[in-house]
Amino acid sequence: MIPYQRFVDDVQSKAALSSAEQARDVSVGVVQVLVEHLDGLDREQLAAALPPAIRAPVSWNSGTSPVAESEPFVHEVAERVSCPPEQARYVLEAVLSEVADSDRAVGDELAHRLPDEVSALIGAPGHGPPPQRDAAQAEGRPRPLDSDEVQRALSGLTNWTGDERAIHREVQLPPENWEPVRQRIQQDQQELSHHAGTEDRGNGLVVFTLRTRSLDSVTELDLQLARRIDAAIDEVGFQQQPSS
After folding, report:
1. What's the total number of domains in the chain?
2. pLDDT one-digit tens code per residue, 139-169
3. DSSP state of 166
4. Rounded to an integer, what distance in angstroms lies between the CA atom of residue 141 and that of residue 75?
5. Could you tell me if 121 and 22 lie in one domain?
6. What Cα–Cα distance (Å) separates residue 166 from each residue in 82, 133, 160?
7. Is residue 96 part of a domain?
8. What pTM does this model have?
9. Which of 181, 164, 157, 161 lies closest to 238 in space, CA to CA?
10. Residue 194 C-beta-side C-alpha neighbours within 13 Å
11. Which residue intervals of the chain are DSSP H helices?
12. Same domain as 171, residue 113
């Protein structure tokens, strides 16, 4: 099973969503639509492939109905997650590809149950960016985020501040808790091939700074790493630096 944080990070990135919370909500919405078109055994297999935080809000005992055509299905997803149908395709693709990455057998079964045009999304994750992504994203390169995008993203993070040039977070932990946090963040940085600036101010106070140096701007990579840092800190508990 894919860990929750990776699941929502990947959905957020693939579907160009503004926050991890939005990625979680649309994932739950897509799964709910899937459940309503699957029978009992398929539901059980799908549930087992999902992180608990995605699985728990879903109503698994809802009624079921067959799905024969892709267009009504995509519109159903669009209505459930409150986005245009064109964007719903990318949301659907992102969630289906994560499910298939978590359990290939479940992905294959969904491909068999869903209309051909929808099942094709399972086999081609990331085949194209959502409409609002620009050419840089379409080519797989980092894209500088504008001020509004950064501020929206900050609202979904824990105690981060900053602007389109860089974002920062001050964290104070008991000194003995920092080593496991550093190890976790180091692993996350290796997975993302992206690194945070850190400043140790003593007495357990550390300041994280994130920016993409090659662009001198904040990009989606910085936001992904910020979410990973938040998750690492939450695992050991943190003590927010008091205001002066």
Report:
1. 2
2. 445 688 999 989 989 998 999 999 999 999 9
3. -
4. 31
5. yes
6. 31, 21, 10
7. yes
8. 0.52
9. 181
10. 20
11. 4-15, 20-35, 40-48, 52-55, 70-81, 85-102, 104-113, 116-122, 135-138, 147-154, 175-192, 220-236
12. no
